[in-house]
């Protein structure tokens, strides 16, 4: 029996158990992967201030996100093709999140459809929207998310055109996912994954097949995305989308203080400081490094959440202490899913919560709401002197 102690252990198992093309898809950053690497290494540059001889009983890591109670300030970020990491992956992840008490976000590019996930969960989840050129499709998917009872719309703004990930190109990753011979050969070495996939009919984009124009065409992820996604998305369109949706709206992919101000003035219920896990603009700063400038610009006007690079409870604590109101995780739960299905997602959440709680105690804090810069040792030049 392998003991799973940390997220990295789940990552190793994910790599072993899922087909190379899908593990690579999850583990990729765009181009040189500089931003992808910075996301994790920048967290490591921040250190923690130990405090002793303070009462550490009765601790709580619970909080709220857009008014909804959460077991810890962590939500599952939208991840496309989750259902290729493990059969029916979106349903498994949503169920694990629901049982744990944290929000789940379903991607537009999911394998299980909105209706599939709604049928297999009992609490509302959030829906992430990618704005397509086909307006009828967009209207329709918003209506479907409403009908399924989704309690927030997460509008992603940083991927109207796809940053190239070299591994996907080399592995021949297509949209929707189809198998080439080398990929089939690799899959024969992943028997549990194959059994899972043979046991489900959910193997294509569940929200899209039969809904979006041209979706039947088999092309690379890059060309397909660029054909489907609306390159004209701007603040005017965002306002019209909010009218159509009529509920809570979260803007994802903010990485600039001026954009954050614009989003706050717009009245976003939350913004997600994110570089898409290093998968889009290679060369952008890590989320944790840009966070202080965004906190300075809009703290208190809208909730500020952060994702990109969180791999431990210590990282969550650092993000909160740097001024984020909450966090999101992508790969940290995807590794769990690829390693052990629903139980692996639960395990990832348990690991993060335990790490967050213990680290908080060692910092002399009893409540995540009390975390702040006083808990951190940040190098003087951390934010950098960029001009
Ligand atoms: C495999 C993969 C697929 C993703 N798909 C989507 C998506 O469909 N929609 C979206 O808004 N973000 C997507 N993201 C970005 C995540 O929501 C999130 O911003 C990112 O994973 C955070 O970085 P982390 O993986 O280091 O936690 C994806 C990320 C990964 C790793
Ligand atoms: O891979 C991604 O990061 C992503 O968001 C995406 C983009 C196009 C299709 C599927 C997922």
TrEMBL record:
Family annotation (PANTHER family): 2-HYDROXYACID OXIDASE 1, S -2-HYDROXY-ACID OXIDASE-RELATED
Question: Which organism's genome codes for this protein?
Answer: Gemmobacter fulvus
Query: Which Gene3D superfamilies does the protein's record reference?
Result: Aldolase class I (3.20.20.70)
Q: Print the keywords alphabetically.
A: Flavoprotein, FMN, Oxidoreductase
Q: Where is the active site?
A: 276
Annotated residues for binding of glyoxylate: 25, 165, 276, 279
The entry's protein name is: Alpha-hydroxy-acid oxidizing protein
Q: Which family does it belong to?
A: Belongs to the FMN-dependent alpha-hydroxy acid dehydrogenase family.
Matching SUPFAM superfamilies, A to Z?
A: FMN-linked oxidoreductases
**Domain of life from the UniProt record:** Bacteria
| Pfam families given in the database record | FMN_dh
**Residues the record lists as binding FMN:** 78-80, 107, 128, 130, 156, 252, 274, 307-311, 330-331
Span of domain FMN hydroxy acid dehydrogenase: 1-381
Record field: transmembrane: none
